[in-house]
Amino acid sequence: MLQELNFPKFEYRFKSTENKVSIFDVIRKKFIILQPEEWVRQHCVHYLINEKKFPKSLINVEKELIINGLKKRYDIVIFNSDGSIHLIVECKSHNIPIDQTTFDQIARYNLALNASFLMVTNGLNHYYCEMDFDAERFSFLRDIPNYTPH
Fold it and tell me: pLDDT by residue (tens digit) across 87-141?
């Protein structure tokens, strides 16, 4: 049974092969093995596309980046049309509480990526921040702004 998440419902496609269930990822355009974190990631991707109106062409999922010489993978990044990064999303499984470690992780990613907004979610709880690079601080938001073309 799949965990009910605190996101709007969306149309998803499942496929089962060799006793493994996969879910179709509209960004990567392929089926991905359905793990609890992937369930959250797919809900978040559809939320960003359907509710926040971000174009699929600006969304990137599960890509590698190098931080302090270590290979890491971000969950979701949304680019601005100029190639700069608008938003980084860190997804956790629904049974992983969001804590300081999670915020530290996304903050480390943002040192390399310089996103304007950060989102952390476990599918049940969502946290949103806006960065102020000049003042070297961030502020929590009630939600992230909807997409506006520049």
Answer: 999 999 999 999 999 999 998 899 889 999 999 999 999 999 999 988 888 899 9
Assign residue 144 a region: left if phi > 0, alpha if psi is -120 to 50, beta otherwise? beta
What is the pTM assigned to this prediction? 0.94
Per CATH, the number for 14-141 is 3.90.1570
Domain boundaries, the chain: 14-141
